[in-house]
Fold:
Amino acid sequence: MLVKNLDRFSYTIDDLTHLLRKKDIFDITVIQYGILEITGEISVLKQSSKDTVKAEDLNLAPKQEEMATEIIIAGHVLYENLKRRNITAKWLIDNLKMMNIKDIREINYASIDEKLQIYIDPYEDHFHKEDTITEEQSSDKN
Structure:
């Protein structure tokens, strides 16, 4: 790492690791060469032995994944989207009940994928008090 180049942009190591994570690099040891561009972005060349293998590298033709379909927004069912996935409102309600959701109005956002897996984001996030970290708690540990 050329610390002087980081200093020129007033970047810290945390800033650098953030930029690397945006490039899906979570381990700095996989980098062969990195360039901090004048725009403040980073360009990275991974070591060839650490580079990610793509399906085309192996002459494979994987099935293209479909986008998930939104089925509930702000507590409202999008019936047209249910129809596109060939599912009924009864099927949806039955599945929500199995997920312990009693009222559709509890759901901020829900989508369903091609395998009929439902993703739900409820309005209420049920974090345990001890699971949440505030800046105050974080500074107490330093």
Observations:
- The two ends are 26 Å apart (CA to CA).
- The CA atoms of residues 134 and 140 lie 10 Å apart.
- Residues 131-142 have pLDDT under 50 and may be disordered.
- DSSP finds five helices and six strands in the chain.
